[in-house]
Amino acid sequence: MKKIIFTLVIATIMIGCTDLEEEPIGVLAPESFFNTTDDLQAAVNGSYSYIASEEFWGRKLTLSLLLRGDMVTIGDMTTSGRRIEVDEFRLNGDNGMITNFWPRSYAIIGSANYAIEGAASVQASNEVKNAIVAQARFVRAFTYYHLVRTFGEIPYIDFAVREAETLSSISKTPVDEIYQNIIEDLEYAKTWLPDQQPFRSMPSKGTAASYLASVHLTIGNWQDAYDEATFVINNKGRFGYDLEADFQDLFDATKADGLVEHIFAIDFKGADATSNISRDYLASVTGMRGPANEGWSVAVPTVAVFDSFDDSDYRKAVSFDTEAVFDGVLVPWQDFGTANRGVSRPHIAKYYRFPGTAGNNNRDSDHNYGAMRYAEVLLIAAEASNELSGPTGEAVDYVNQIRARARNAAGTMNSFPEDINAGLSKDAFRDVILEERRIELAFEFKRWYDIKRLNLGMEVFGPTSLEPQPNFDATRDYLFPLPNDELGRNPNLLPQNPGY
């Protein structure tokens, strides 16, 4: 538990995001430090900072989710072995991806816990204090939602740690209990958060409801998922949500601030980043290599994945890079592999194409990542509605709204994708929704969670799939292994996850 102890007891709050700057402060005892609501907000901003860090959203967690799914695999095989192990289902508890994003996750949670407990020491109205605590409880729920889906049973820590010894005997918490705690935090957040915030990197009432819809969908509470998703949809004007007119704008860092489709955004600082806090490497690891070492060709779609998108779908053009200029020459994807250690496959364009004020290799991008988009809420509502009542006109319309947006190719209206027609069976419409999620949310760190929640591994990693992975074992690989160093320091966290 050394890493958990360090990050919870010595939880240093760093600069938040571009629009939420706070001076670094140390947090050791909530009752002695928190005197004003500004102090509470600073602690919450520290949690946002840790989310927008290289060890979490900037590479370690998100790259792991990309590689674990069936939409990308390793391009440059000389890359770090820890990445290849994640991709090829050859993980163990010493893997460097896990041992980075695990402690960062608990740093996020630790800062949130200090803010929650610190509120008791602050003299202010409940309305003001509770709105800040609601941010912290949302952040805690957001982080545990990733952890529980990734690892299963984990230590659930919902208190500010004052002494390291407190954690020396902590045990894992059952999955059902973790989900219940996540739901309670999100319900609190939904109650106390405002309808809108100054920035989409701060959660609002609609953000909490959207994540409630996602959580309930994940655990099969169809009615609750439907109720929360339609609450957001029916109040989209109140919350300021809608689909962006041009799908490309969602992945252009120069247009990132204020996108109406973003329900919760992870805001990176661009080339101004001076440490792993607010440092983003996703553009680098997904961009194509070339003579000038432009990108790293780490997470690259297979040709089969590229071919699975219809050429008439504008989202294909937005999602993939199929040509690039190397040394002044326009090179098609079929020739990418001739340059340096590149690989001759189309590459992910969502992060590499328009990274904003990025540095060398497009590292330190200025992206605001849409961790939750309004389009996903529409798809959640459609899926939950279908499970409850089949393909109603309402559910079909939710999907058709997304397809209508996809027909707008930068102002040129296309005829593809066509609207879904009535008359589909419940099973057929379920397949349509899942495929729409695969296309619409491609490379946005959702696909692995869909594979896991729907138990699709044997299908999507089989020998005739888009990404065959012969090592996939359904009895083992729906969970990552727990970090071995944590297990070694605290035997109460044993046993290791099955199969590791």
- Report the CATH C-level class of the domain at 2-182 and 478-493: Mainly Alpha
Query: What kind of sheet is the major sheet?
Result: 2 strands, antiparallel
How would you write the strand order of the largest sheet?
A: 1-2
What is the SS-derived class? mainly alpha
User: What CATH architecture of the domain at 2-182 and 478-493 would you give?
Assistant: Alpha Horseshoe
**What is the multimeric organization of the chains shown?**
single chain
Give the uncertain stretches in residue-range form: 1-27
Number of helices: 20
Distance between the termini: 19 Å
CATH topology of the domain at 2-182 and 478-493: Serine Threonine Protein Phosphatase 5, Tetratricopeptide repeat
CA radius of gyration is 22 Å
Count of β-strands: 12
Q: Which overall shape is indicated by the principal axes computed on the Cα atoms?
A: globular
- Helix percent reads 40-55%
**Which whole number gives the mean pLDDT?**
91
Classify the beta-strand content into a percent band: 5-15%
Pfam families: SusD-like_3 (PF14322), SusD_RagB (PF07980)
Domain SusD-like N-terminal: 91-217
Keywords: Cell outer membrane, Membrane, Signal
InterPro entries: SusD-like_N, SusD_RagB_dom, TPR-like_helical_dom_sf
Q: Can you offer a commentary on this structure?
A:
Residues 345-500 form the RagB/SusD domain. This is RagB/SusD family nutrient uptake outer membrane protein. It comes from Aquimarina rubra. It holds the Pfam family SusD_RagB. The two termini are 19 Å apart. It is built from 20 helices and 12 strands. The chain has helices at residues 2-9, 30-33, 37-51, 60-68, 81-87, 98-118, 126-151, 175-192, 205-218, 222-234, 236-239, 282-286, 303-307, 314-319, 374-389, 393-406, 426-440, 447-453, 457-460, 484-489; strands at 11-13, 25-27, 73-74, 262-267, 299-300, 320-321, 323-326, 329-332, 347-348, 368-373, 408-409, 412-413. It has 500 residues and is mainly α. Helix 7 (126-151) runs antiparallel to helix 8 and helix 8 (175-192) runs antiparallel to helix 9 (205-218). A hairpin with a 2-residue loop joins strand 11 and strand 12. Among the domains are: 2-182 and 478-493, Alpha Horseshoe (Serine Threonine Protein Phosphatase 5, Tetratricopeptide repeat); 269-366, no CATH class. The longest helix is centred in the N-terminal third of the chain and has 26 residues, at 126-151.
